[in-house]
Design goal:
It is a single chain. The chain is α+β, with helices and mostly antiparallel strands and 153 residues long. 34% of the residues lie in helices and 33% in strands. It has one helix at 15-66; strands at 69-74, 79-85, 89-96, 102-105, 111-114, 123-129, 132-138, 145-151.
């Protein structure tokens, strides 16, 4: 009988089955990776926005108790510094701007002065990450802020 000496098929995957699994894994990975990078960019931007809002609020409170305060943008180290003059300058807080973020002002400002009532000029930050632009405008009198999202054209 010719069929008696035939070996039974071993349990394993064929090359075609392995190739199909690899193609499926690569498709899933290719669709997930862009969304992960978008989420991390959004987290960096949201953290910076929260830091800027907190810096403005703290500058206003310190100005009321110390007669004035200053937010200074140090371009050499990409940091925003909150300073109180009492009578010498005292560094209170720093906000570091990540390397992936380009931070600028809508108007040419390097120093913001807050008077003893916590008032300053109306100012705005521009935050750029890749093609994403966000503008945050602070009202100089009230401290209210508005945020505008956009993309660069």
């Amino acid at each position: 009988m010719p069929g008696m000496f035939r070996k039974s098929r071993t349990h394993g995957f064929t090359l075609l089955e392995l190739l199909a699994v690899l193609v499926l894994i690569s498709l899933v990975t290719a669709s997930i990776i862009p969304s992960i990078s978008t989420v991390s960019e959004r987290a960096v931007k949201d953290q910076l926005i929260a830091d800027l809002i907190a810096l403005d609020a703290r500058a206003r409170l310190l100005a009321e108790s110390h007669a004035s305060s200053i937010i200074r943008f140090d371009t050499s180290s990409d940091r925003l510094q909150l300073i109180v003059r009492n009578p010498e300058e005292l560094l209170i807080q720093e906000v570091h701007v990540p390397e992936s973020v380009l931070l600028g002002f809508k108007q040419p400002l390097e120093i913001l002065y807050f008077d003893r009532f916590g008032r300053t000029v109306t100012y705005a930050y521009i935050i750029r990450i890749d093609q994403s632009l966000t503008s945050i405008r602070f009202n100089g009198l009230t401290g209210w802020h508005t945020q505008i999202e956009g993309t660069e054209r």
